[in-house]
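User: Sequence in, structure out. Go.
Assistant: Echoing your sequence, followed by the structure tokens.
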Amino acid sequence: MTLSKVSKEVVGLLLLLLFGYCFFFLDMNELELEVPSSLLNVNAIFLSIVLEALPFILLGVFASALIQTFVSEELLQRFIPKNAYAALLPAAIVSAILPVCECAIIPVVRRLIKKGMPLHVGVVILVGAPILNPIVLMSTYYAFQTNLSIVYGRMGLAFLLCMVIGLIVYVVFKNNNQLKTVHEHRHEVEGNKFKQTLYHASDEFFDMGKYLIIGAFVASLFQTFLNRQVLLEIASSDIIAPAVMMAFAFVLSLCSEADAFVASSFAHTFSAGSLLAFLVYGPMIDLKNTIMMLAFFKKRFAIGFIFIVTVAVYVAILLYQSFV
């Protein structure tokens, strides 16, 4: 581990400890500061989102670390048939048992493709695993206990869409190699499996945590300061609202194990279809994923993939709103 990486982790840990101290021991009344009510509202929304999401983040990073340490790519490939069309359903099922969020899924899928997995099968796992995995199912259920249609809708749409997107990718790109040749710097962790698991879990926690904090803060600002009338006008449109929530999901780049808590904070404003657009699109493609896609895959494929996912999700949400 380099000195710069160690120093970043030390700074991150110190900031986390400072946050904990301020939250549990600092009394704003003793400081005699007059804090505007709007900022207090931002603080309340921000903390509620972060504190609800943290347990699922921790659960997710440990599950992901265990997969990375103990499960080989070869083991997963045994479940995938050779026939291109027959492989879609098993790939969707495999993605449902992988506790890997979108923060980590691209490197995993890239390794699978390099080891011989067909491109379209890798795409099914790429878009399916961040939503269908059991950790996300639990967090979505916890966030929407009073509206289980969101839970069923998210899982059902994701399961169907990952196969549809994989099929379209197969038709458009066949199984031509779409990976860039990238020089990899491998950092192996010496020691037993337990030590490796802890290392990967801590690494992922800090990677995911920063996106959760940024996303929760932006969401709290969005809800506090955006003109309510404008928000209501956007939310009332079945055509515009899903597109706005998809754009919001793309920019926020939330971890899929925490995004349900941000979405639930909009439950009283946006329709179920708009919330599902946020919950389905964000884990499939967001800003940080786009950067990683462009780094690991050929530019033409990355742009085509983003277009296919965007159109497929938007059309699926419009159909959902029409029939439900």
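User: And one key feature?
Assistant: The mean pLDDT is 80.
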